[in-house]
Amino acid sequence: MNKAITTEQCAEMVCDLDWQKISLALPPNLSTRAKNSSQKYRRFVEAVVWVACNRAFWSELPRAYGPWRSIYVRYMRWFKAGIWTKVDRTLDANSACGTALRSLLDDQLHAQQRRRLRVERKTPPSAVHPREDVPLL
């Protein structure tokens, strides 16, 4: 079994160059916030990378990063807004940070597709209008 990476190792994974690329990939409102309180936002990205590298549950996140639920909720907001996809495109494919984030995003997309398929299978054919694909519910 792989040994979990420490918070210090994770901080090293998000090097200054990666952090600069990440902050530039953020939408204008977040980019400004990230520049004004870079420590806070960088710590958030490091927390996400820690989860990705350790393939851990969010609840296993070390307390040093802050409350895991807050970090998870922000991660999901960024995911749904497409921010992580933009961040992923800006990072070097061979960087440790980029590789870790990519694996987490791939897992998230796969889980989202599985949920969508499960919901589609549960929707009975009679619940959809025959002509317009409009739910009757």
Automatic annotation (TrEMBL):
<protein>
    <submittedName>
        <fullName>Transposase</fullName>
    </submittedName>
</protein>
<feature type="region of interest" description="Disordered">
    <location>
        <begin position="116"/>
        <end position="137"/>
    </location>
</feature>
<dbReference type="InterPro" id="IPR025161">
    <property type="entry name" value="IS402-like_dom"/>
</dbReference>
<dbReference type="InterPro" id="IPR052909">
    <property type="entry name" value="Transposase_6_like"/>
</dbReference>
<feature type="domain" description="Insertion element IS402-like">
    <location>
        <begin position="16"/>
        <end position="87"/>
    </location>
</feature>
<dbReference type="Pfam" id="PF13340">
    <property type="entry name" value="DUF4096"/>
</dbReference>
